[in-house]
Each structure stands twice: as C-alpha cells, then as structure tokens.
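Worked example

This section walks through a single chain of length 310. The input is the sequence exactly as stored; nothing has been trimmed or padded.
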Amino acid sequence: MKRFGISCLAVLFVLTSAQFASAKGAKAPKGAKAKGPAPVAKESDVKEFKGEFAWGMTPQQVIEKLNAKIDTAYKDKVEKYRTDPARSDKLRDQVKAEKAAVAKSYVKFDGTNAAWATSIIDEEFLPNNGESMLFYREEKSKRYFFFSGEALYKMFVAFDKEVVAGKSFAQFGEMMQQKYGKAQTVYRDVSTHGMKEKVLDAFQWRSAQGDGLRLVDRSKFYDVYCLVIFDHSVADRQAEIRKSQAAKTPTGSFVDSVITDKESDRDENDNVVDRITGKDVLKPGERRGGQQNIKVPSPTQGHEMGTEDR
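Given that input, the structure is written out below as tokens.
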C-alpha cells in the first residue's frame, strides 16, 4: 500500500546509469565551503514532501493525521474481508496496534531517554531544550517528527537500506538534485590518524516559504542517507543554543573525549565474559574487522507492527 511522502522516491528508480556514473568518485575540492544561501528547491516538490503537515502542528494533531493515513491504508482490505469475521478482526487489531505504536513513539527529550543519544537522530535534538519527537513507519523509510515547545518544526526521513542500494552519498545526492534542483554542497573536516581531509557531509536547499532542506549522510553507522526538512527560523534558534552550549564545554573534558573521532580506548577485557561464552558484543558505533555496523534499536522498536496484511 502506498504511503504519503513516498512519491519523492520515484526518482530513485528512473535515473540512468550514466547519471550514477557522473556522481561516482566525486571528491571534495580543497577548501570547499558552503557560501551564501542555498539554492531554492522546486516548490511543488517541497510541498509534496511535506504532505499534509504544517509547521506549528501539535503532537496530537500530527498523530491524528497519521491515524487517518493508517485508516486509509487498511480501508480496502477491511472492506474486502468484511464478511470474514476472523480476518476482519485481525485487520482491525492491526489498525489499532499501529495507531497505538504511533502514540507510544512520542518522547520528550528531557534527559531521561539516553537511548536516543546514540541513535540515527542523535544530531537532530538538544536535551532539556523543550523538544520532543514521534515517528512513523512509511513504505520505504521512517519519518521522525520534531517539535519545539509542542510545535512541529522539522521532519527527518531515514531511507531504508534497499533504497540506498550501495550508492555512494555523492550518487544519492545527484539523484536528489534531479528532483529538487541544484543543491549547495557542504563539506566537513575529518581527522584520521593525524591526517586531515574534507568529506562531503550534506546537500542543502531552501524554499521560498522559509523552509530548509538537506540531505545528510548517516552511512557511517547506519548505512542510510536521510532527507530533512525544517522551519529555518526555529532551526536557526536551535543552532544558536547548540553553539552556546558547545562554548560552555571545557576543552579536554570528558564530553570531548566521547565525541571525538579518536580510536576507541575501550578496555580490551571489558567483555571477557561474552567472549568466553562465545558472544562478542559491540558497543554503539564500534566496528571490528569485516563485521557489519552495529544497529542501535529505537526504544520502541519492539512495538512497531509489520505490514503482512497490507
């Protein structure tokens, strides 16, 4: 069943291999920096991406919109099995469960939900800053709704691995530019074993209505890329608060030691019991040898429903 916000993925399956090749192997130019405002994205596509959601909506208003989407997604099947009590009851139970999962996903970032600080959205919120979030599973992505003071101001869409399909971030960015228009590229400095280099970090656009739009790389730990749309005025205020907090953090503090890209100083014997029993548990963000990146489950992952009957 088609869900909202998925039409933007159509472009992923119609671009030619030549377009992929044009982005493959793209390197960051020396000294490249984002200068001036980002290009304006195509208005119709920005509106399509936002769907029925508007900045300022309360969490309850967003939940009501999502509940309506769920009802629509199941409508045909519920009608089809209307004369089959067992199947009909099963579908209705699934509808109720999905709605309950959406409501239960709501979380306030008040410093008591440590799991989100090591999740795919860890860079999208500030603890103890009046922010909150809920999420919803779409057909080929997961959409996170962020609120500031109970008012919606940002949506974060994490595409499934099957959508990324092994494409480099530069390739994926080229594909998105086919839809939204030419983007501004943003690079960041990365230090690895004492060597500094510039790495492509994001593609960004803006809208004539004051929205910001950016494509970000979350493949280091999660193997996915994410598209974020936000109310620029609110996001700018959040950025100032983040900058202020960072300025208050003493250099060389414990926090600095945690967030830098240094090699892990984990005690090599801290999981000796696991190794004796044949299990080797990796910490969030850790990777060894050819093993896959560790995936940090969301706190409510166990409550999400499948789509078997959709």
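What to look for: Residues 1-32, 252-308 have pLDDT under 50 and may be disordered.
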